[in-house]
Amino acid sequence: MTNWHDAGPADLAPGTTSCRDVGGGKRLIARDSAGGWHAVAAVCSHALLPLDAARIRGAALLCPHHGARFDLATGKALGPPAWTGIAVYPLRLTGDRIEIGL
Ligand code: FES
User: Is 52 left (phi over 0), alpha (psi -120 to 50) or beta?
Assistant: First the structure.
């Protein structure tokens, strides 16, 4: 069963990210370039550094530290230096709020 947690206002523009405290941990909310919403882990799998300054490239998340890219829909690493993916979480919009399933 999915437990839904409030993740704050749905106020992100396409191509932007926001790191938020949700369910006792940091999660990264991201909108891809097409406007799709995603919730992923807020820590990069390469060197375990924070992703809160990550950028969006199309449907991918770009780590600000060493340039690893992750598929926003699946969390899969798209190439070096990261070989392991990052967690993705279900996300839904309820009115003007974001909820994440944990
Ligand atoms: S910490 Fe993300 S690519 Fe190195």
Answer: alpha
Please say whether the beta carbons of 89 and 101 come within 8 A: yes
Q: Which atom of ligand 1 is nearest to the CA of 51?
A: 2
The CB of 41 under 6 Å from ligand 1? The reply is no
- Intervals of the chain under pLDDT 50: none
> From the centroid of its chain, how far is CA 97?
16
Enumerate the β-bridge partners of residue 31: 37
Contact 43, 50 (CB under 8 A): yes
What is the predicted pLDDT for the residue at 79? Answer: 87
- For the Cβ of 53 lying below 6 angstroms from any atom of ligand 1, the answer is no
Residue 35 corresponds to which tokens in the numbers above?
């406007």
Domains of the chain, earliest start first: 4-101 (2.102.10.10)
